[in-house]
Amino acid sequence: MPSVSVELTEEEAKLFLEFRKYQDTFKTMIDCGVFDTQPGSIILHFNLDGVLSKIDRNQVLFFVASK
């Protein structure tokens, strides 16, 4: 596979790293089923660096009894 070299300014590099952080957060949220929690609620916990560290998922499950 051919290698590719990309040069970024310092500002572009910071923006890219920020984008990757958000991309990783959304990937984790998708993998954990955050967007499939219906009905219910989700609490996202972030550490001091702004990195997702914990997801609390509270899904309301109910059963309808048949007669």
Query: In terms of per-residue confidence, which ranges show pLDDT below 50 for 5 or more consecutive residues?
Result: none
The largest sheet, given as strand count, sense and whether it forms a barrel, is: 2 strands, antiparallel
- How many strand elements? 2
One letter per element, helices H and strands E, the order comes to HEE
Q: Numbering strands along the chain, what is their spatial order in the largest sheet?
A: 1-2
Mean pLDDT comes to 90
How many structurally independent domains? 1
Radius of gyration: 19 Å
Distance between the termini: 64 Å
| Secondary structural class | alpha+beta
Helix proportion range:
25-40%
Percent of residues in beta strands: 15-25%
Outline type? elongated
Specify the number of helices: 1
Describe this structure in words.
With 67 residues, this protein is of the alpha+beta class. It has one domain (10-59). It is built from 1 helix and 2 strands, in the order αββ. The chain has one helix spanning 10-31; strands spanning 40-46, 52-59. The chain has a two-stranded antiparallel sheet. The mean pLDDT is 90.
